[in-house]
Amino acid sequence: MFCIAALFTLGTCISFANAEVKVRSYYKGSKTESSLGKKKGTSGGKKQNLKNKGGGDRPGGRPPPEQDYEPGEILISNPPRGFETKAKKLGFSVIEHIKMDEIKMNIWRLKTPKGMSVPDALKLIGRNFPGATVDANHRFDLSAGKKGMFPQKAIGWSKVKAKCGRGVRIGMIDSAVDLSHPALKKQKVKYKSFHDPKNNPAPPTHGTAIAAMLIGKTMSNGWSGLLPGATLFAANMFKVNAQDKVIGNSVALLKGINWLAKQKVHVINLSIAGADNKMFHIATKFARKKGVILVASVGNWGYKKKPAYPAAYPDVFAVTAITRKRAIYSMANQGKYVDFSAPGVNVWTAIPGGGKVQTGTSFATPFISVLVGLDVARGVKPNPDKLRKLMRKRIIDLGKVGRDSVYGWGLINRKRTCMT
Questions:
Q1: Catalytic: which of 135, 174, 178, 196?
Q2: CA 1 to chain centre
Q3: Catalytic annotation on 180?
């Protein structure tokens, strides 16, 4: 889901050593809401979710997130001087050296010695460079029937003028965006892709849906984005690899964060989910220091105990999805890190060539992102804890009384007050 809103799974560092993140499209092997209208406080899921209660294989047959990484690659941050020479003697070679001044990151992407597994490579580098941060190149997912609801109606917000949100600067990291779509044409969108230029960018289906939800113009049928007057900075981190799979990596993700921090955005929407990546974790701390708030989807794996990242990082808002009857989305991850709930089941979204009903925690995240963006743009201190406290003042408590691992604090019940 832009699970920073944060989408590693198309469904979202000073000392960075986590492996590069590969992202697969959530449309392949995806799960959709199968049981709506269950009793409030229940997951709305079927027995198929039980195998993920403790964090096993994910939908689509993917391994647990901590075991899902790019083969033959590792990342290292903060190594000592002259480490490249020693690393080469150990059999490693440098694929890429990336300097990201805005978030103060300096990362080397290394190719592992032939025949050596990633875990063994991490141990070898860790022993020889104990002061550096190293990690695998983890893969992330984008967190993405029937009659669908327009976003504003789903959350209970009234129609707004085209200027609503003027002055708010929203960032998103996702797939490519179709800027020619009627909902985005002539809107204030700045787009940049950070995918590997050796490959084609991933299809713009997911990114177009999220971008239009955030700042799309009002259409003749009454559909509208949530803040049509805001400015959107959209970064693509996904590509199509040689096996025709949609993937995104941590290097593209971190480059996107660096670019968005430079654009001085108020909030970054991340509908992505993956493993705990050391480098990305450090990046979230730098983003906070820069005054940038990250909002991420909790992901769609059906996990009830194992957290998904970046949503589970303390500095990131974690958003889950509910149905129109306020039951939890059956495949939404659960955990103590969940902050807030928003509509994310059977939401009508824009896609290249028209529109489509979609389900996933990805589509719940924009509701929180626009509210956070409005608060920060108005002058509220960009502190995650302070903004959470402000958000909790208008909540519909769902499930157990108080905060719980399913709904978080509950359904956001704030009206959007436009900046014009």
A1: 174
A2: 5
A3: no
266 classed as catalytic: no
Q: Read off the pLDDT of residues 289-300 as tens digits, 9 standing for 90 and up.
A: 999 999 999 999
Q: Name residues whose C-beta falls within 8 Å of residue 47's C-beta, 6 or more positions apart in sequence.
A: none
Question: Which among 138, 181, 195, 206 is annotated as catalytic?
Answer: 206
For residue 54, the model assigns a pLDDT of 57
Q: pLDDT below 70 — which residues of the chain?
A: 1-61, 141-147, 419-420
Cα–Cα distance list, 137 to 70, 299, 352, 380, 391 (Å): 5, 19, 31, 36, 34
Listed in sequence order, the residues at least 6 apart from 132 whose beta carbon sits closer than 8 Å to its beta carbon are: 15, 17, 76, 77, 78, 79, 80, 83, 125, 126
Q: What is the pLDDT of residue 55?
A: 57
**pLDDT value at residue 23:** 36
Report pLDDT for 142.
66
What pLDDT does 25 receive?
32
Per-residue burial over 265-274, b if 16 or more Cβ lie within 10 Å, else e, is: bbbbbbbbbb
Single out the catalytic residue among 138, 362, 369, 375. Answer: 362
Tokens of 222: 């009454």
Residue 375 is a catalytic residue: no
Predicted pLDDT of residue 215:
97
Peptide bond into 310 cis (omega under 30): yes
CB 173 within 8 A of CB 235: yes
Residues 6+ away with beta carbon under 8 Å from 264: 169
Residue 213 token pair = 């939800």
pLDDT of 145 reads 38
Q: What is the pLDDT, as a whole number, of residue 24?
A: 34
* Distance from C-alpha of 360 to C-alpha of 344, rounded to nearest angstrom: 6
